[in-house]
Amino acid sequence: MKIGLQIPRFNWSGGPTNLGTKLAEIARTADEVGFDSIWVMDHFFQLEPMLGNARPGN
Fold first, then answer.
1. What spatial distance separates the first Cα and last Cα of the chain, rounded to whole Å?
2. Rounded distance, CA 23 to CA 14, Å?
3. pTM of the model
4. For residues 3 and 39, is the Cβ–Cβ distance under 8 A?
5. Where are the beta strands (DSSP E) in 1-58?
6. Residue 32 and residue 38: Cα distance in Å, rounded?
7. Would you say the C-alpha torsion 10, 12, 15, 18 has a positive or negative sign?
8. Measured torsion, CA atoms of residues 26, 27, 31, 32, in degrees rounded to the nearest 10
């Protein structure tokens, strides 16, 4: 059996400028403890009902 790690949120301290650094840290840790894959949210514009309109100017 292979186990993957799902990362559904990206609201860590440091804001967007910290995103790459934090994802890399999580990926290294996940690899070290034996996860086979990492999955991230890829439906950004479907979040509107929960988080408001994500499109600039709308």
1. 45
2. 12
3. 0.66
4. no
5. 4-7, 37-40
6. 13
7. negative
8. -40
Q: What is the CA radius of gyration of the chain?
A: 14
Q: Taking Cα atoms as reference points, which of 3, 8, 4, 5 lies closest to residue 42?
A: 8
1 token code pair: 């059996």
Residue with tokens 């929960």: 50
pLDDT digits (tens, 9 = 90+) for 15-52: 888 889 999 999 999 999 999 999 987 765 555 555 55
The residue type of 5 is: L
List C-alpha distances in Å: 38 to 1, 7, 20, 35, 50: 15, 7, 14, 8, 23
Task: Dig out the tokens for 55 from the structure.
Answer: 């499109």
